[in-house]
Structure formats: C-alpha cells, structure tokens
Design brief:
Rossmann fold, nine-stranded mixed β-sheet, 24% strand, alpha/beta, 9 strands, 8 helices, globular
Length: 250
C-alpha cells in the first residue's frame, strides 16, 4: 500500500493511497482521528454510481465514525473516481459506463470483492487500525457491489445496505448472496425511488438471511436520502461495532 497525500484537519486525518490488487491499482482514502495512538476499528464505505470516494456524504460519514472512535476507508468503484483517465469524478458518464459494465462484465463484482479484500488486508496491518470486527456502509452501487462482499467476508460484522432491489444484470447473484447474509443489516429505501422501485427493494430486504435486520423507508427519490438516514445508519454501525449508543451531535 502506497500513501500519496496526508492531510490533517482539526478532527479528521485523511490519507490518500493506492494499492495493487490483481494487477489493478485501487485508489482509496483512509480516514482516522488526528494524533490517535489507540488502534481504531474500521468501517468500509462504498460510494454510489456517478460519484466517487471523494463524495461529500462519504466524508461526512467518515467524520461521524471517527468522532466515535472508529476509522473509515473508501475506494473508488469501477470506472469511477481516480480509476478513470479523463478526470471525470461524477455525473452521467460514469453512471452510464458503470451500467454498461454491470451488464457486460461478469467478473466486475468479483474484482471489486478482491479489491476490497486486498485493501482490507493491507489496512489491518497498519498500527492505527484495529484487527477486529469491520463494518460496511454502501447503498445503490455500494449495495450492488457491496452486498456480495459482505456475504463473503467474515470480518464484516454489520452492514448498511439499500437503494437497490432484486433487479438488474446480477439479480440472481444478489438473491443468492442476500440469503447468505448473517450479520446485522440496516437497509435504506426511498419510497419514490425512480431507479429501483420500492417493491424490488422490499424483495431484496426479504431475501436477506439475517434475523437481525431493519428496514428504514423515507419519502423522496433515489437521490433524496435525508441527512437523518445517513446519521442513523452510521449510528447503527457504531453501536454494532463498539457496543455504545452514540448520540447525534447538537
């Protein structure tokens, strides 16, 4: 793992890195508390299509986790962020290219799982990252690629998923992997989701094999997830990983 940039604000240290996995250069960000000596448990954050690891909600979630004694990591998904050569970090082009890749590359999901696992292995060797239970937060594309990761990675002990349903090119795989999920799951649904209708989202939630799962539905379209849902889903992971009940900052 090679670190390229290290930036520290008052409450957040952000390190930019790349890590070689299976011949692929995986770009990522590691978020930790400045000056923290005690190893911190880790949350993996999977961003949605048309955005990147630098998306505002990724950093906001990372701040929430770090504030409660955790660390966080985000990596760019396929054809997103620093994996691109054209510098386009968000918008229609990455979304369309991802849709094409989802439909035509049967290895895309497995490659993303390999990328996450390779990064996770490397991060757990760092002195400021605790070798303990890991969390995962990822909705929309973060669920398309993250649900199979959670199903196959025993180190992940709690997950936030959603904004996705039993639909699309990998529908059958998602159904099989959903049944394999055994960790606690917090599942987000947008009631008027124009990309993944709530009915198929309900089907995916029902397919999840865990007995410890909760569905939270909010009004609005796919991109209208309220701030409260980000905060409460983050609190879910904090509680599951640390055993504490975090209070929302005033």
């Amino acid at each position: 793992m090679e670190f390229h940039h290290d930036e520290t604000e008052k409450t957040l240290r952000t390190r930019r890195f790349t890590h070689l996995v299976g011949g692929r250069s995986v770009p990522g960000l590691l978020f930790t508390a400045p000056g923290e000596d005690k190893p911190q448990q880790l949350v993996l954050i999977g961003h949605g299509a048309s955005s990147s690891k630098q998306e505002g909600y990724v950093t906001a979630l990372a701040r929430q986790f770090v504030r409660h004694g955790l660390s966080a990591c985000a990596i760019d998904g396929p054809v997103h962020g620093d994996r691109r050569q054209d510098g386009v970090l968000q918008g229609t082009l990455p979304f369309l290219e991802f849709s094409q890749l989802w439909a035509n590359d049967p290895l895309m999901t497995d490659h993303m799982i390999e990328d996450w696992r390779g990064v996770l292995d490397a991060l757990l060797e760092l002195p400021d990252i605790a070798d303990g239970p890991v969390g995962y937060w990822g909705v929309s594309m973060g669920t398309i690629l993250g649900l199979p990761l959670v199903a196959s990675e025993p180190r992940i002990r709690a997950a936030v998923l959603g904004l996705m349903g039993l639909v699309g090119p990998t529908e059958q795989r998602l159904a099989v992997d959903a049944e394999r999920l055994g960790c606690p799951v917090h599942f987000l649904v947008q009631w008027d989701d124009q990309l993944f209708h709530r009915d198929v989202a309900f089907q995916l939630f029902e397919a999840i094999g865990s007995n410890d799962k909760v569905l939270v539905a909010s009004p609005g379209g796919h991109g209208d997830v309220p701030t409260g849902s980000f905060v409460s889903s983050g609190q879910f992971l904090i509680h599951r990983l640390t055993g504490t009940y975090p209070r929302r900052a005033q």
